[in-house]
Amino acid sequence: MKKLVLTGAAGRLGSYLREPLSKLTEELVSSDIVEDIGKLYPGERYQRADLAEFAAIEALLEGADMVVHFGAIGDEAPFEQILGPNIVGAYNIWEAAHRHGLRRVVYASSIHAVGMHPKTERIGIDAPHRPDTFYGLAKCFAEDLGRLYWDKRGLESVHLRILSCAQVTSTRALGTWLSYEDLVQLVTRAIEAPVTECSVIYGVSDNDRVPVDNSGAQFLGFRPKDNAEMFATDILAAAEPADPGDLAQTRHGGPFAAIALGNSGLAVMDVIDDTKSVE
To answer: Among its keywords, does the record have Oxidoreductase (predicted)?
Structure first.
């Protein structure tokens, strides 16, 4: 590729994607709303853009082959805050991609698009939308938007329903963990696949306790290598007894399924900020 765009480049997941993506293209354009992301990798440049501003996104995607869209508010928030970056921003990405003739959008969707399904159901990639938050609702919108733009305009997309891509700090993460190495492989496969049409795939490592069925997306060639079971002994020894009446423990969305709409889900989770810096 000549030009690949990464949104959300200043975020934690974006920080792990920048270097490997810079090796897949002549030019990686990393983007976010911060003024500067510091030192850049060879072949990378930074272009600030607000997802909610169409003109900025249209300029960002000009001349690009594909866009890896990881930019958004990455937590539950009031709908008025989610609307601009997560919903309008998704439309702006797809519309600008269509206008500039991009081949594909690779999108960071989430388990929260289907987060209210009971964990007793091992859901597949065809599970109907059942969002647990406004954040999850925005993911549903983007998945449907991707389907619409494929059906009506022939713009391919891959929707990566990430479960939990962070250090393993809870019993839930023993099943939902996506390692950074497997994240990179997942995004790379989504970029390099010859044909994707509009596809959904779960972003999860090869955990013994994985709670979803990814078999419907085998064509993408994603073969995760890591397994959260290596953390199980310590995590289970420190865990409180299970509560079958707690939605955070009985729904696929975990804590996001139990919080009140508009309230932060990350505030009740132990997510370690291990954002990668350029060496």
So the answer is: yes
